[in-house]
Amino acid sequence: MESADGTLEWRVWAPKAKEVDLILIDGSHRRSEAMAVEPCGYFLYRGQNVPDGQRYAYSLDKGPDRADPASRWQPEGVAGQSAVLRVSGFEWSDGQWQGIARQDLVFYEIHVGTFTQEGTFDAIIPRLAALRDLGITALELMPVGQFPGVRNWGYDGVSLYAPQQSYGGPSGLQRLVNACHHHGLACFIDVVYNHLGPEGNYLSEFGPYFTGHYRTPWGDAVNYDGAGSEAVRTFVIDNARMWIRDYHVDGLRLDAVHAIYDFGARHILQEIKESSDEAALERGFPAYIVAESDLNDVRLLLPKEQGGYHLDGQWSDDFHHSVHAHLTGERQGYYADYDHPEELLQKVLVDTFALDGCYSRHRDRRHGAPVAGLPGDRFVSCIQNHDQIGNRAAGERLSTLVIPSAQRWAATLLLLAPHLPLLFMGEEYGEERPFQFFCSFEGPALIEAVRNGRKKEFEAFHAKGAEAPDPQSESTFERCRLSWRWEEDPSKAGLRMLYKDLLQARRSWPALRNFSTRHAQLHRGPHGPVILELLRGDTRSPAFNTVQVFCNLTREIQSLPGQERTTLLFSSETTRYGGSRVQGLNRRHLLPYEAMVFGPSDWTTYGVE
């Protein structure tokens, strides 16, 4: 931190140490400065005329060099020296940016390292115009806090305050966010506050950052409510504030909040939200806090007066699981709860949660609770994301698991559903390259543990003997880079056009602005459900203010139910999208996996004549 007179302050919380030295490093020259003891386990040193890039480290009780837990810049990685960085030196040019309204958010999840051949923040910028033209309104970056090596999903981050150097470091991230705003795009960052990565993590030497009182899938939980937790809470809250204040991000996606344990009177999630709102108010446009949670518990979203944390949104997996189970027939692992996916799809479209207090076979107990009347724009749904693809043995995308018409069907239902949609990079053109788990750890024991852990993780999903790729191998990482090829393939080019048209329809059809009123029903044939019907908009005057969606759930031609409809707004199977519905084909029938949309005659049509 720099004071008004140019004095630079180093302040570190290290209650486990009796003394802490600041080590200033210039090449081979090292200078040790004793830090002053402050209350509550903090140590402080003030210096004058310190340049950006000055390397430094901390020594606890004359021990080895350790990186600053709150380092803003790690030029040599998590185990290297920290470097002084004044992030306020960046010249922002987004002063006119006002943000994106929540109901207009269309998320596009990106892994920076595999999104482009270069794998950097700057390399994303040339593709922003195309994403905006597609209809995307918000980039969502998988975690960018400094992690070990150069290949990682980001959930093994160690330096939470330092953007990954191999991606372009702090200035690269600032340039990307600035460019997003110039292109009319919001930028979200995925942050991990439930655990930190194991390699290069020396936080336990400084203080009680972790607690063995609770356990997560990744080891000890972060200490949010035990002895010494006040400084840990401040560490995390300040980190959330930093992304919003210093990097101008439009929001944070909080990873796996079900693995955050806090039984204090004020939950850490509530404090993160409050501090983020304060930081957003200072800069002049909103910051949204969206949580990933598998609890199906809207306490995350409810206002404080109702005992909630008042977050802006949460991921909901039930839509994905229902679609995936229906199209693939998979019932392993958590898909065991989706044995009748057609009925659950109907339920999800109306009630958001499929598991809302009912019995979960996968968990062998009741799970979830009703959504308490909250509108659909408080929930984020998808048909693909990094977890659902990458946590498969081979990392297969939906495009390699289902036929093209089924993929168009899934995309249509996602974009017409009464929730905020999230696309995973490359989904819009049916990318076939996998997205597999990869890392570049250095410790042999950790490398072997990760390999064995991935094999065990897939046991519930795959037949005995299925082999996952080596996560440590560079070739695993390389095969995950996007191909960015669709023009020469009519099916891929058509799918991308379908996404573009339906994202435009979300803006042009008034009924899709209504996230509260919807109705869904199943039409059955001799052997079960054959058509899923979704009604969105003002259901009191359906002829004038609604869209009516009919989705063929089968591989067979099905007759449209009910009276004849004349105003066809959209069909997922027109030749424009790579389908087989040509002009003049009977509109009273749904082709295999076809989705048709009907609505008022004065609304814009897409792909139909």
Summarize the entry for a quick read.
By secondary structure, the chain is α/β, with parallel strands linked by helices. The protein is built from 15 helices and 29 strands.
Task: Round the Cα radius of gyration to an integer and report it.
Answer: 25 Å
Quaternary status: single chain
Query: Structural class, from helix and strand content?
Result: alpha/beta
The major sheet is characterized as:
8 strands, parallel, barrel
Unreliable residue runs: none
- Mean pLDDT across all residues, rounded? 94
In helices, the fraction of residues equals 10-25%
Distance N terminus to C terminus?
A: 62 Å
- CATH fold topology of the largest domain: TIM Barrel
Chain-wise SSE layout:
Blueprint: E1 8-13, E2 20-26, E3 29-34, E4 36-37, E5 42-47, E6 55-60, E7 65-66, E8 82-83, E9 107-110, H1 112-115, H2 121-124, H3 128-134, E10 138-141, E11 145-146, E12 159-163, H4 169-182, E13 186-191, H5 203-206, E14 210-216, E15 219-222, H6 229-246, E16 251-254, H7 268-283, E17 288-291, E18 313-315, H8 318-328, H9 341-351, E19 358-360, E20 365-367, E21 379-382, H10 386-390, H11 404-416, E22 420-424, H12 444-457, H13 474-478, H14 490-508, E23 518-525, E24 528-537, H15 542-545, E25 546-552, E26 558-559, E27 568-571, E28 589-590, E29 595-598
Parallel strand pairs: 9-10, 9-22, 10-13, 13-16, 16-17, 17-18, 18-21, 21-22
Antiparallel strand pairs: 1-5, 2-3, 2-6, 4-5, 6-7, 6-8, 11-12, 14-15, 19-20, 23-24, 24-25, 25-29, 26-28, 27-29
Helix pairs in contact: 6-7, 8-9, 11-14
